[in-house]
Amino acid sequence: MFEVIFLQFLNGLDKGAAYALIALGLTLVFGTLGVVNFAHGALFMLGAFCAVTVRMFLTMETVTVDPEKLSPWGSPLEIREPLVQAWFGDFGAVLVNYSVPLSIIITIPIMLVVGIALERGIIKHFYKRSHAEQILVTFGLAIVAQEVIKSVYGPNPIPQPMPTDLRGAADIGAFLGMQANIITYPIWRLVYFVFAAVVIGGVFAFLQFTTFGMVVRAGMADRETVGLLGINIDRRFTIMFGLAAVVAGMAGVMYTPLLPPNYHLGMDFLVLSFVVVVVGGMGSLPGAVAAGFLLGILQSSASMNQVKAVFPGIDQIIIYLVAVIILLVRPRGLFGRRGVMEA
Amino acid sequence: MTILKRGLSRRRVLQTGMAGIIGSGVAPLVFTKGAWAQEFCNNPTGDTVVFGLNLPLTGTYAEEGADEQKAYELAIAHLNGEGDGGLLNVLQPSALKGNGILGKKVTYVSSDSQTKSDVARAGATRMIERDGAIMITGGSSSGEAIAVQGLCQEMGVIFMAGLTHSNDTTGKDKRRYGFRHFFNAYQSGIGLAPVLGDAYGKDRRAYHLTADYTWGWTQEESIKNATEGLGWETVAAVRTPLGATDYSQYLTPILNSGADVLILNHYGLDMVNSLTQAVQFGMRDRQANGKDFQIVTPLISELMAKGAGESVKGIFGTSNWHWNLQDPGSIAFTKSFGAKYGSPPSQAAHTAYVQALLYADAVERAGTFYPPEVIKALEGFEFDGMGNGPTVYRADDHQCIKSVLVVQGNESPTSEFDVLNVFQEIDRDTVAYDPAIFGGELGEAEPVPMCA
Amino acid sequence: MPKFMSRNDLLLFAGFSLVVLAMPIWLAPFGAGYPDLLQRFMIFGIFAVGFNILFGLTGYLSFGHAAFFGVGSYAAVWSFKLLTLDAIPAMIFAVVISGLFALVIGFLCLRRSGIYFSILTLAFAQMSYNLAYSVLTPITNGETGLQLTLNDPRVLDAAVGQGFVGQPVPNLLGQQLSGYAGFYFCASFLILGFFIAQRIAGSPFGMMLKAIKSNQTRMQFTGFNTRPYALSAFVISGMYAGLAGALLAVTDPLAGAERMQWTASGEVVLMTILGGVGTLVGPVIGAWIIKYFENILSALNDNILARFWSFLPEGVADVLVKVTSKFVGDGWHLTLGLAFVIVVIFLPGGIMEGVRRVAALFRRSGSSGAKTAPQTQPAE
């Protein structure tokens, strides 16, 4: 029984890491700009497709058709020659193998530009408008983003293999000195967890220990006063939007080997991430992270067969149920500041 | 396709004009009382006839849908006498002439069903009412097939089911106007169980993960019954929602459940995801109860095997058809399809193509598009040459009875399409069953319901 | 109220009814004159009118209205299965059940406002959807959808000894409701629903709802308890949704869980915003436009586009076909998304505001001393 619970706990951490990462970016935007961004899921999806694009370039091939020979299904035989391997030899093969983690390098500038462009181009005009209008315009943008991706990459998911060294499962039980082969867990999911922890830690450190972060935090607390001090808070907030987009994008990239990305990936995560943010408390960064992990673990434990035997279907609704209860009992969420959108 | 395709026929003008004048109260009285008794839904009067293709182009079964679409386009080209003729040349007996159907050129309209029953049904309604489809075909989920089949019975339009494997399609939910060429879960069980017994022994403990809808339910039941007949024990059967993507929470409980076989009652993307994730969890490297842990995929196609890549090697499943079969029908179809699209056809493509041809042939034999006559021509029809050996369209439940393939993931594929091997061909007498076991009622073919 | 209806209201109502009833005629040239689409125009029109009673009048943005729509469908199909194939009991049953459902959910959700209200409705709708999809399968038949079968009990039909052959289909006092009959059946409900919405908007109750929208806090300070008003609006709007869902089940007796998903709720939001939130006609027009384009735009393909652009030189035409094909067929959602974003940014009052602006422009150029354009209500 212990190993069952422990494995579901790992699952919870793994899911929670993904939720926390998305909710973190969402909260950054809400906390700094006060904007409810329904397009945040789309940023996650765009990140995932950065990885897809990088791999597409890395696996380019030359195709020569040999009209003399026929394939078993009667079309002319195609001979494919991978280009990157041809140019770089073994190093090329390594590049292809590690395409997913490598894409992060390219994803960061792309998502930064996307985020800043989005904020300057559209979101900026909605600071003064109601939250409902913010929801609507970003919801529209999310639809546009996913449809553009669909028309470019097609409706089907595009699998992204993980590096060969990181495939398969690690025997955590043996590592912790228990019996071998009882608690095993896929290596990439552990990598994802560590990655999430690093990113979350990085964002907190950035806000805590840099002057830039200090100003932003001050601006979150009292925008007007900071403005009166002669600090251009708007520029910093724009950069924060870019940062939120980068966090979402990176989360998307690293998620691709677990889940082949397709165009509605963002929408799938959107509702969940909003629930996470609300449970954590709108505008609270620690709240978003804590709620992410909490909900991840709750969802995993709810899908244990023993739990389902008592509450059938609980695994399907647990997250929403928790959200409803928290909203009704404690509307500012677990860590929310008093007065943020309370009513 | 075309917005104004049907234009304003005399009847339509009459209908709409009168309807507008009379208003809401009295109008219904006029239209329903067999004023056009000689007519039937979408009786083709011009020189073309329209097929309605209801295909999942997005969603969980999107890849199957795309392959079906290619097959339908090919079939329609062949029916119209274009291309190399494909299976027209090998169907035995055949009334097809390669000049369309009853001299009318075949065209088609299509609709994306999104792998959702609700949407599929709306799409079929649209194709019947707006585009004048004489026959609806396609569908790549049993949920869709059953929903659309019910609609077709209401509308009086024949439905030639595409990829649907649930026992219910021709069992509990069978309809007079619905026909299925594909095999079903019960037959998969009959075919697969002996092979599993030989390969993995009689003393096994199985854990099912099942897509939570009609097909998953019936496949779970059929495979459970078949394997328990071998002496296997079923540890648990857990339902997962159709279109779920992350299976980790369903997979971890298996690891220490005492099971030593995982049976995945999934299809399409569900299967690709659950199988690859199961392999990531190290299930294929595990030992349980002193035996190697095994995964079984009762229904598998080369599209999914391709998607799952490495993970599928050595895994057993069943298929309706495989492009590597060496009978003249399979060779002809594979060549014809491969030459046009550059890849071999999937089992979904095959069943779609065959269904289009069988409908056309039945109309030719009946000499009319009048659905009850076409139904009579299809019921009990014996044919051969379509790649599945001698086949009969059983009159009692509109299920094709033919041989079933047990396939296994290829250990050393020579190309990206060479991912499954035919392990064994189970002949049709073995997989035939008594249609009464599933209950259901076909309903009547006449009086023909009249669509709007 | 001195008069039953003002002259303007009466004109609007009469004009609306005429436009609706004559739809089969004036829509035929646009390729939309077939019953299935016309029925959907009516059904989603009702849904949007009802949604507007909540969102347009009170400003509460619900992202979970599809749940009531779905509950209405399920209730109607169960009435067909258990009681009788007649449509009237099914409609009553569906409206009552969805009203009760809305009462419970509304009571809980209305304890919060703003984004919290939206998330609460969203959470309830997703719970309903997920349950309908999984453990409630005995009631909903899960993904496959609830259908009528020959051996349903139908106690009332059995009691009067009514039998039939073939597939069971809903009817109205023995008259089948497929095709144009179904359209007129739905149309009469849309007109009725429109009439009620019109009455509500003009009544003191409606004024109260608008006051909640403009400043809820001030209302509370003056000693008003706003919640019963908002809750009534929520329930009425839920009953409209249930009615629409029931009508969909009447015209096509299948109830699937997909119609409860949050994207379906999002669709009715799109309809209302696109048409013009807070106006009477706007949401209906929004619903018609979205359903029209869903059916027509999505059916366009490269061949049709090639014909359309064929008057241009070949190279230019090819490029245009390539570009435009991204916006029609499978890609019509892209067009929808873009149109929606543009409307939210530039035309917060939706199409109705656009119409008003254009009308004001004409009036101004016609008589220079005319009054200024009426102020439009921004969303929320």
UniProtKB/TrEMBL annotation, chain A:
- Xref: CDD domains: TM_PBP1_LivH_like (cd06582)
InterPro entries according to UniProt: ABC_transp_permease (IPR001851), BCAA_transport_permease (IPR052157)
A molecular function GO annotation? transmembrane transporter activity
Q: Write down the membrane topology.
A: Multi-pass membrane protein
Q: Name one Pfam family in it.
A: BPD_transp_2
GO process annotations (BP): amino acid transport
Signal peptide feature range: none
Write down any Gene Ontology CC term. Answer: plasma membrane
Annotated localization: Cell membrane
What keywords is this UniProt entry annotated with? Amino-acid transport, Cell membrane, Membrane, Transmembrane, Transmembrane helix, Transport
Q: Which domain of life is it from?
A: Bacteria
Q: What is its main location?
A: membrane
- Membrane spanning residue stretches: 16-36, 43-60, 100-123, 190-216, 237-258, 270-297, 309-329
Family classification: Belongs to the binding-protein-dependent transport system permease family. LivHM subfamily.
Q: What is this protein called?
A: ABC transporter permease
Instruction: State the organism named in the record.
Output: Devosia soli
Q: What is the lineage of its organism?
A: Bacteria, Pseudomonadati, Pseudomonadota, Alphaproteobacteria, Hyphomicrobiales
TrEMBL record, chain B:
The alphabetical list of record keywords is:
Amino-acid transport, Signal, Transport
Give the matching SUPFAM superfamilies. Periplasmic binding protein-like I
Whether Transport counts among this entry's keywords is yes
InterPro entries listed in its UniProt record? BCAA_transport, Leu-bd, Peripla_BP_I, TAT_signal
Residue ranges of domain Leucine-binding protein in the record:
49-410
Could you tell me the Gene Ontology terms of the biological process aspect for this record?
amino acid transport
Q: Does the keyword Signal apply?
A: yes
One family from Pfam that matches here is Peripla_BP_6
- State the similarity comment: Belongs to the leucine-binding protein family.
PANTHER family cross-referenced by the UniProt entry: LEUCINE-SPECIFIC-BINDING PROTEIN, PERIPLASMIC BINDING PROTEIN OF ABC TRANSPORTER FOR NATURAL AMINO ACIDS
What name does this protein carry? Branched-chain amino acid ABC transporter substrate-binding protein
Organism of this sequence: Devosia soli
UniProtKB/TrEMBL annotation, chain C:
Report the transmembrane regions from the record.
Answer: 87-108, 115-136, 181-209, 229-248, 268-289, 332-355
Q: Which GO terms describe its cellular component?
A: plasma membrane
Tell me where on the tree of life, at the top rank, the source sits. Bacteria
Kindly list the places in or outside the cell where this protein is found, as annotated in its UniProt entry. Answer: Cell membrane
Signal peptide residues are: none
Give a GO molecular function annotation for the protein. Answer: branched-chain amino acid transmembrane transporter activity
What is the membrane topology here? Multi-pass membrane protein
Q: Which InterPro entries does UniProt cross-reference here?
A: ABC_transp_permease (IPR001851), LivM-like (IPR043428)
Q: Which UniProt keywords apply?
A: Cell membrane, Membrane, Transmembrane, Transmembrane helix
PANTHER family found in the cross-reference section: ABC TRANSPORTER ATP-BINDING PROTEIN, HIGH-AFFINITY BRANCHED-CHAIN AMINO ACID TRANSPORT SYSTEM PERMEASE
What is the protein's name according to its record?
ABC transporter permease
Q: Write down the species.
A: Devosia soli
Q: What is the lineage of its organism?
A: Bacteria, Pseudomonadati, Pseudomonadota, Alphaproteobacteria, Hyphomicrobiales
